[in-house]
Here is the input.
Amino acid sequence: MSIDLKSEIAGKVWKIETKPGDRLSEDDPVVILESMKMEIPVAAPYGCRVIEILVAEEDAVAEGQTVARIERA
Here is the structure.
């Protein structure tokens, strides 16, 4: 079962840190957003596997927008 990983802020995708198929531990960054000249990671909430990345570097994202789909490891 996939889970949507959402951005907690509006900003721009600065860097994508992972790719589909990667296994992550809790708090590993999936993407890093830039907002108000700060880098804010969107991190894995628990051990998981990345299914899909739904944004690209330089994309603008809205608060609450799904940036990736994950599943529990």
